[in-house]
Q: What sequence folds into this?
């Protein structure tokens, strides 16, 4: 899996990846999303800092291009995200609004010993967990 940020790199990655990840910064870039969706590979779409209407437009564009293997990742664009700002209730909203999508959580919270946020996201129905961390 890899995240391209332009058309040339999306094309370059095609023979190299099984899954495309689309950054939340490109969620409203419908032409770019369509370009990736036309490749008919699974897509993980980050939804940070988006309105539900923007997510709906992106999902519609992906499906219109014939790509049906889609995972929506809830995330909060804060690095690191404070535990109290993780807004995990969005997982339920995404599951209800997009029943044909896999729903996941992209975690930017600083890790704690019990992995509280990740465990809670899973208990709330996240089927995919992506964890962001640094090694320093």
A:
């Amino acid at each position: 899996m890899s995240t391209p940020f332009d058309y040339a790199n999306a094309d370059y990655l095609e023979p190299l990846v099984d899954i495309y990840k689309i950054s939340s910064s490109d969620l409203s870039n419908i032409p770019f999303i369509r370009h990736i969706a036309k490749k008919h590979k699974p897509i993980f779409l980050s939804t940070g800092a988006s309105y539900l209407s923007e997510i709906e437009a992106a999902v519609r564009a992906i499906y219109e291009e014939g790509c049906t293997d889609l995972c929506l990742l809830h995330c909060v664009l804060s690095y690191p995200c404070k535990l109290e700002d993780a807004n995990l209730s969005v997982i339920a909203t995404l599951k209800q609004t997009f029943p044909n999508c896999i729903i996941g959580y992209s975690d930017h919270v600083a890790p704690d010993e019990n992995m509280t946020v990740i465990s809670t996201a899973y208990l709330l129905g996240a089927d995919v967990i992506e964890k962001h961390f640094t090694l320093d």
Q: What stands out?
A: The mean pLDDT is 93.
